[in-house]
């Protein structure tokens, strides 16, 4: 039996040489005599075990120790005891020895356990050949091994104790983990009473500091009253609750889709994004002017000679406002002028020309007949759809008709941008002015669907492309994220619409426009089954030819109107009717006024069996069609209120006394891919039932009369 070596003595290199050796005859003899391995041998074994790169759990540690010390079960238990794996193993081992050796060995084990555990920690830093008792080098490994870091901190906290058992380590890990566990944070925390009251009573937008230029803030209230017709002077407020909420989002430079725009709040919304746009332009201009001054004066300050001032893009235009008609552009400019006006009158260049080209004078004379309220609100003033104009903003002036590369704000329609962007191969195309747009605003985006959505997609395809020319830019002032091609990630996009766009997820709950149908009318909804969205158009066409058209070709089904939202579907049906020599007339948005008048007369006088009618024509003209007896919605309308408008046309006051309403019918074709449109028409609950029901045909009867 060899002489015991006092703990902590002896060269570290000699201890490391024994790490990979098996139990020798001397070690076996010592084990038989004392019932445990020599402390020096145990320390080496622990170091050999704990010197690993990856942290292992307790089960893996047991398997590893069992494979390396499988010659005898007692050393295996002793190893577990020395590393603190099981508190009961130490008790079992002590019962096997006699009372005298038990007392002596237990004392030695307790001493060795504490030191060996420190040695195990120090073994992680053994690459630096530090002594096992040196604990100053633990921090480096703690930053890499998160599990070990928790264990080491636990050892440091309980350094006065002789040993740390495995159960205590596990509990420490659990306690530390619970502090950052999202489950505990959410469910094991009591909300303060004031927070609960604030959440319960929150019924409107919160008012926040606007953080706009003082010059603009002074004119907000006056502009709201004068331009928007909103009285917000009560209580000293300058914005309505809706405007406060929207501006809080806009001023934080968050992207926004607001699908609740109506003809009653359009001017309120318009003021909000105009305020945000001109505030952004003026802040950018102030920063550029301040940096210009520093650059001129830095020749006298050697400390700032190498400092860069990057505050610009590759081109000057920063704000792009896309609106459908000239009247909207006219209203935007009027609001901008009002916001920039102070006690001194703001100087506006080319104001007379702008009023003659964009003003409302003489454009309301063409309106004939009674139209719905939303139609009168949308198609007021100048309704031309082809325009674009640049605006340059300064502290006391607003220049209209600025060249694009000298403008801060561009106001244009999708068609106006499409003509200047051009197509592939055009010689005179230009889109460099779109390379550094920082704020994109699309107002009345639902109208773009009725105009031509391809123009909008074409616009997005040419945003933030690399300019083909320099356009006089100072590259030393261009922001680094612009040079890196990251401008699209910094752009703020604001979209305002009166409906949920089909490309977006449907989230709101709908009551359904079917409730606005006043005529007594049975409405048959046919759910067509389609495997994928790409084949929906073909599936709809085949279903119409096989199931719907044969029933409506009967003699008693004359004067049937087919409502078609898509122009491509309209052309497809028109060509089929011509090929099959079916009695029909058709009117669309491209037809002449004379052709439309002739088709309406033939249909009303029963000379034509069918009338093909496009949604875009109804959007722009809102005809009061006469002689309708049956309606087929080839596809659900984009605007839900168009459904009730068309159904109510069946109640013709001129024939109601002669013809019973029992002969009127309405047929609708829909699919699961039009869930948002269906919910807009029939309501959320009915739409849910129709889409999940096993039946393919559903009937609703509106306008029941006593």
TrEMBL record:
Domain UTP25 C-terminal: residue ranges: 514-698
Bias type Basic residues, positions: 1-17
Location of the region described as Disordered in the Swiss-Prot/TrEMBL record: 1-184
Residue span, UTP25 NTP hydrolase-like domain: 253-505
Cellular compartments annotated: Nucleus, Nucleolus
Basic and acidic residues biased stretches: 33-62, 135-147
Keyword entries, A-Z: Nucleus
Main localization category: nucleus
The organism's place on the tree of life at top rank: Eukaryota
Protein transport as UniProt keyword: no
Biased composition (Acidic residues): 107-119
GO cellular component assignments: nucleolus
Pfam families with a match to the protein in the record: Utp25_C (PF06862), UTP25_NTPase-like (PF22916)
Entry similarity comment: Belongs to the UTP25 family.
Protein name stated in the entry: U3 small nucleolar RNA-associated protein 25 homolog
């Amino acid at each position: 039996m060899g002489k015991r070596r006092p703990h902590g003595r002896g060269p570290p290199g000699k201890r490391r040489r024994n790490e990979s050796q098996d139990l020798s005859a001397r070690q076996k003899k010592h084990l038989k005599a004392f019932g445990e391995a020599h402390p020096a041998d145990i320390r080496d074994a622990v170091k050999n075990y704990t010197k690993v790169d990856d942290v292992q759990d307790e089960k893996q540690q047991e398997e590893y120790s069992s494979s390396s010390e499988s010659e005898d079960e007692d050393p295996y238990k002793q190893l577990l005891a020395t590393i603190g794996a099981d508190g009961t193993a130490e008790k079992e081992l002590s019962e096997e020895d006699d009372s005298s050796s038990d007392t002596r060995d237990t004392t030695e084990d307790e001493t060795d356990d504490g030191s060996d555990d420190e040695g195990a920690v120090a073994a992680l830093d053994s690459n630096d050949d530090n002594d096992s008792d040196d604990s100053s080098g633990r921090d480096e490994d703690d930053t890499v091994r998160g599990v070990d870091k928790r264990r080491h901190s636990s050892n440091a906290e309980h350094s006065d104790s002789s040993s740390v058992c495995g159960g205590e380590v596990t509990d420490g890990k659990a306690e530390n983990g619970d502090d950052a566990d999202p489950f505990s944070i959410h469910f094991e925390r009591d909300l303060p009473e004031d927070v609960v009251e604030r959440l319960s009573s929150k019924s409107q937008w919160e008012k926040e500091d606007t953080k706009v230029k003082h010059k603009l803030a002074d004119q907000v209230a006056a502009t709201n009253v004068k331009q928007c017709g909103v009285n917000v002077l009560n209580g000293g407020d300058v914005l309505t609750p809706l405007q406060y909420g929207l501006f809080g989002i806009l001023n934080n430079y968050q992207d926004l889709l607001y699908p609740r725009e109506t003809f009653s709040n359009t001017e309120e919304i318009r003021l909000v994004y105009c305020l945000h746009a001109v505030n952004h332009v003026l802040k950018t201009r102030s920063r550029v002017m301040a940096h210009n001054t520093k650059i001129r004066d830095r020749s006298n300050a050697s400390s700032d000679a190498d400092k860069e001032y990057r505050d610009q893009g590759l081109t000057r235009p920063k704000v792009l406002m896309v609106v459908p008609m000239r009247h909207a552009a006219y209203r935007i400019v009027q609001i901008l002028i009002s916001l920039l006006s102070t006690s001194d009158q703001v100087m506006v260049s080319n104001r007379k020309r702008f009023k003659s080209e964009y003003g409302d004078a003489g454009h309301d004379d063409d309106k004939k007949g009674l139209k719905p309220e939303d139609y009168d609100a949308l198609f007021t003033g100048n309704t031309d759809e082809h325009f674009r104009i640049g605006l340059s903003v300064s502290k006391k002036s607003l220049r209209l008709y600025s060249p694009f590369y000298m403008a801060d704000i561009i106001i244009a329609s999708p068609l106006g941008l499409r003509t200047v962007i051009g197509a592939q191969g055009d010689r005179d195309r230009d889109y460099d002015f779109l390379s550094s747009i920082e704020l994109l605003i699309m107002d009345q985006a639902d109208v773009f669907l009725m105009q031509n959505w391809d123009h909008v997609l074409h616009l997005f395809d040419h945003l933030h492309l690399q300019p083909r020319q320099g356009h006089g830019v100072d590259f030393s002032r261009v922001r680094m994220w612009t040079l890196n091609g990251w401008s699209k990630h910094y752009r703020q996009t604001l979209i305002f619409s009166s409906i949920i766009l089909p490309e977006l997820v449907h989230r709101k709950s709908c009551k359904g426009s079917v409730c606005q149908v006043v005529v007594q009318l049975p409405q048959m909804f046919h759910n067509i089954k389609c495997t994928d969205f790409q084949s929906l158009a073909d599936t709809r066409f085949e279903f119409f030819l096989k199931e719907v058209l044969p029933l409506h070709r009967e003699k008693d089904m004359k004067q049937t109107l087919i409502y078609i939202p898509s122009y491509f579907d309209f052309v497809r049906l028109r060509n089929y009717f011509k090929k099959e020599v079916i009695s029909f007339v058709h009117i669309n948005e491209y037809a002449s006024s004379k052709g439309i008048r002739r088709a309406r007369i033939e249909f009303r006088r029963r000379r034509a069996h069918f009338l093909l009618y496009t949604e875009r024509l109804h959007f722009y003209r809102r005809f009061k069609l006469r002689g309708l007896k049956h309606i087929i919605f080839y596809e659900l309308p984009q605007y839900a209120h168009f459904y009730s408008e068309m159904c109510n046309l069946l109640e013709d006051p001129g024939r109601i006394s002669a013809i019973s309403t029992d002969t009127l019918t309405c047929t609708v074709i829909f699919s699961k891919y039009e869930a948002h449109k269906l919910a807009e028409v029939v309501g959320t609950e009915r739409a849910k039932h129709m889409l999940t029901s096993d039946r393919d045909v559903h009937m609703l009867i509106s306008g029941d009369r006593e």
